[in-house]
Amino acid sequence: MTKTINLTIPLYPGMPVGNVWAWDAPFRQEPIVTLENNGVRIDALSFHSETGTRLMMAATIDEGAPTIGQLDVGQFVNRDAVVIDIPKGPEEEITLDDIDRFVTPDPDYRDGDIVLIRTGWGNEKRYEKLGDDYAVRTPHFSEAGSMRLTEIMKAKNSDTVAIDVAYVGSCGWKHMKKEWVDLPPWLRPPFPSETAKIYLKNYTKEKSWPDWAASWPLHAHGYIIAALCNLDLISQKRVKITALPLMVRDSIGAPVTVVAIEE
After folding, report:
1. How far apart are the first and last CA of the chain?
2. Is the model's pLDDT at 22 over the cut of 90?
3. Which whole-number Å values give the CA distances from 24 to 52, 54, 159, in the listed order?
4. Is-contact 94 142, C-beta < 8 A?
5. How many CB atoms are located within 10 Å of the residue 217 CB?
6. DSSP bridge partners of 225
7. Pick the CATH number of 3-262 from 3.40.50.150, 3.40.50.1000, 3.30.70.2740, 3.50.30.50
8. Which pLDDT tens digit goes with each residue over 56-112?
9. Whole-structure pTM value
10. Distant-in-sequence contacts of 182-189, Cβ < 8 A, 24+ apart
11. Using an 8 Å Cβ cutoff, are 255 and 227 in contact?
12. Euclidean distance between CA atoms 15 and 215, whole angstroms
């Protein structure tokens, strides 16, 4: 019997992933026409390229890398994945030692697998219960942990890591967190506010690269699928994964619908 598990955080107004950093453009949904007035309902939707469960790629840091519209989406259909548990709590790092303890020796990790990491952060609709803290206090990779995982994935011919943390690396601790996230909400109106635009104009590579250092090795190597949920519903060590991104032709990443299939 086949079991299909939805690993995708739904998009909804006020959702935390895509709502806290200076470059976030929060998900918005408003009616264009309504059943009551027009007899039909059509909504206007707006959000940014890293809202919710999303596919991230090398194009984030490399202008010569493929965009979403240049992908063969078949490469994300019915892929073999190995489930690896690395339990983590708020603000904890996935370290080099964690990778060598949980990933390196895993006997079920086969050549070419998607590495599906389960920290527990995406369980039980925590994204609804914690609000913005779900994004701000997420577990994440250390730079050394990210580099070590990248090394192992290259050796195993794996091109994709999928994980249930809201953000993969570093979380802006040097600059953006204290300069933006820690401010009262009324002092950090979201993009496209002039306040956000001015901040981002001054948030140069000298700030952004140290702030998110743990992300870059994984971005440069292949594909990242982040902010998964419901991984606790997976009962098998190996599953099939299908991940279909929103087909925005020239985008460097996009929200993605992800399902796991257990046979």
Report:
1. 6
2. yes
3. 11, 14, 27
4. yes
5. 20
6. 55, 162
7. 3.50.30.50
8. 999 999 999 999 999 998 999 999 999 999 999 999 999 999 999 999 999 999 999
9. 0.95
10. 188/22
11. no
12. 22
Q: 129-151: per-residue pLDDT in tens?
A: 999 999 999 999 999 999 999 99
Task: Return d(Cα 207, Cα 92) in angstroms, integer.
Answer: 22
Report residue 153 as tokens: 């994935």
Domain boundaries, the chain: 3-262
Burial degree of 211 (CB within 10 A; 0-12, 13-18, 19+): buried
Q: How many CB atoms lie within 10 A of CB 69?
A: 12
